[in-house]
Amino acid sequence: MLKSVILIGGDRKGTRFRPLSLDFRKPLFPIGGLPIIEHHIQACTELKELQEILIIGSYNSSEMKSFLDEVQAKYSINIRYLQEFVELGTAGGLYHFRDQIRRGNPEAFFVLNGDVCADFPLRQLYEFHKSKPKALVSILSTEADRTESVNYGCLVTNKVTGEVTHYVEKPNSYVSPLINCGVYVLSTDIFPVIANVFYSRGENGDWNGNGIKDEGHIQLEQEILQPLAGTEKLYTITLNMKWSQVKNAASAIYANRQALELQRKHYPERFTYKTNCTIIDNVFIHPTAQIDDTAVIGPNVSIGKNVVIGPGVRIRESIILDYSTVDSHTLIIHSIIGRNSKIGKWARIEGTQVDPDPNKPFAKIKNLPLFNQNGKLNPSTAIIGNGCTVSSEIILLNTIILPSKELTRSFKNEIIL
Amino acid sequence: MATEKCQMRALILVGGYGTRLRPLTLSRPKPLVEFANKPILLHQIEALKEAGVTEVILAVSYRADEMEKELKHETEKLGVNLIFSHETEPLGTAGPLALAKDILLTSSEPFYVLNSDVICDFPFQELEKFHRNHGKEGTIVVTKVEEPSKYGVVLYNNDGCIESFIEKPQEFVSNKINAGLYILNPSVLSRIQLKPTSIEKEVFPYMSSDKQLYAFELNGFWMDIGQPKDFLTGMCLYLNSLKHRDPSQLYEGEGIVGNVLVDPSAKIGKGCRIGPNVTIGPDCVIEDGVCIKRCTLLKGAIIKSHSWLSSCIIGWRCIVGRWVRLEGITVLGEDVIVKDEVFVNGGQVLPHKSITESVPEPSIIM
Asked: Where is each Nucleotidyl transferase domain found (chain A) (predicted)?
């Protein structure tokens, strides 16, 4: 029997995802027409021996309830949400809920970071882990561009055995092109290792010097994986695959594109349409959305529940969230339109594409800061917050609009509070 | 009126390259650029003909052949004799009068002088009457402007006798400026030498100190349409004037808002919103669901579905793709192609270019 843990963090995390996370819990933000972590759940249900999914985070359980009800009904697998009352970090949460994880004696359990978007190769990862009898943890890794690798956890390996001989989280200088994908399989024997960290810390009292974090706060990467490297207990399987993390809005657009491609491959039945509009693949349209036959949608567009798209509308590389309406002849490119927004006629909402460098074979999407060194907004995905009204004929170029704004004139490269 | 009129003449200062109206003037001499579906020069020649002018002298310094070829046919229809006076070097605003002296002196009647960039409800007959009434050497048409500090203002007494000219006044002294339209007696020619000379600075001040120059106040609109921004403003004013003078010339139909002028050969699709203040030239095609405001589309331009255009001049035979947005005094030269979904703000696009990427800030596209 196997289990899976999805780590979703809490309110303090995902601030880079604002203003979208002001009304959406980031793990529930729809990518490719499904909440981000539903992709994780889908991947878990592909393994017959996987019997339970535990979602660990510090969001209030009431905020997760409707999602849990939905996925419980949809998938024949036990899915539970375990709420941390303080943020415990990536290993602290596992340790806190160790009994829940160990119950039923699973042979091993997966740990999936909630912001990862990939075609989770869980079967391959598990078979690899089984083949390494001494392994406590096996990490899924992928190759990154040399200069970009320093933004991730970097692994140095023994190419023959797959053992991780050195691990460092976000190094200052180049260490290795292999990066941690945030997807692991762990043996339950990991808990005594975490316990050692937990107890050794208690002896030192004010361990982190500022007392902000709970003493049960343990980081899997720095406090567990790093010391395990070179002890023949940490292994990695390196796969070349499309992989990204959803950190900010630009990465949501990129992840949406990847997710649509994967969904299309694995679940083609989700890609049937009631509308006769022109579709340029890949496009997800929720069955309740109404799209005029003269609209042209795609590529890489997700359209949510009850959205209404008028005649002659053009949308590409965008996410349109539930209950929004887009009136005639409007163009939307590289944008995210929040729930309940109303966009007028002949409007233009345009963001700037932020993509991995196509000339670098292992490049990943960069999570650029909001502002550049000159204090100007870095051109990126345009975001219209929930409940905004955009007048006809205006242009919003690279703008970030906070929720409930009424926009009657054009804006360029601005954040509208 | 049954009064026997003498044959009158006019000299139009066409002048140089019209660089301010580039990129349009890279394809056609400025006087031939269509303003409200008619070459700028023809607006003036038709008004002059109406006032009894039978001979028009065009003071040109380049591309005379092209203008002659294009205009001869039109002026013959009107029964106006067109004479080209070719400057070998630019002679300013007065020099061309001296160059055409021999022609102008064959009659003792006063003659009109026009700057070729000026558009208004030309009041030539009233101007002539006013001029003959005061009996002095010359009359300048003056017009009221909002910001006189950018121009030279004209000061005159209640009778219209001009007292002085003040170039770009710092403090407000008057809001009346020289409108670039004059009627002059042939005697004025004795004040001008054949060399580069400014009529405003080197001729008129002397005439006014001799009390020989009067001001005639223009009613209605006036605009110097020598640059794109003013070309569009002038078009708005012209269409508004047309609405009062001859509303039957304006186009009406579904989706038409305000004053819109459409050549009968142009085609407009379904679900469009055109206007206010739009001119659509011959053979233009506007596909379905297009929105156009405050624009001039020159002959043969094609605007594809769902595009939005505001404050633009679209050159001859341009093709604007679908979901394109053009704004901010964008001027497309002849035969420019704008690809689908592109945004151009304040672009000055040279002829025969293809634009595949957005131009969000004003720039010149070579």
From this structure: 3-201
